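In this notation, each integer encodes one residue's backbone shape. One such record reads:

___
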Amino acid sequence: MASIRKTAIGVAAVVVTAVGATGMVSAGADTARPAPAAQQSSTKGNAASQAVAGNPYTPKEVCGSGYYVVKDKGGIGGKAKRPVFFPNKATVWGYVYLMYNDSTGKNCVATIKTEKVGKKTYMFAALRVKGKSWKADDGTYKYYAGPVKKKAAGKCVKYRGFIDLGGGFYATGGREKWGNCG
């Protein structure tokens, strides 16, 4: 399975050599997760506070207080919400979000499933700040991968999300070129 993961990560534009050199930072499959949106009150009207289709978790719950989805011309609705596609781009398996916290100057990335929700699958969320190496959270999760946080005030970033569909198939998405510089 490790060779499949490295190949998939390479396809997802996370440089395999960088991943091998630095290792992936993983919270582990048994890490405690916050209570789902269905069990918490949240502010309606804010995309970061609304549960993703079929998934009880929101990007705001994953990243924490003070984070919001940033603007991104290539994202859905002008926000840094990008689909995690099967390679034929016909099926969306989730979304990868880039968020920012003004008070800490940190970006946060979360990959949230819309398919196979509640079923453990290998997935990751990854963030790279220009001039730095990739940082990722990977593991076998039921709902989401992340949060991945890095200080990025005034710097450009790339971010990726990945969901293993099984049988050698995967879904991937995110920002492949440097952007969200701010």
Observations:
- Residues 1-32, 35-47 have pLDDT under 50 and may be disordered.
- The chain has one domain: 2-29+37-179.
- Strands lie at 67-69, 81-85, 92-101, 106-113, 121-129, 134-141, 144-151, 157-166, 169-179.
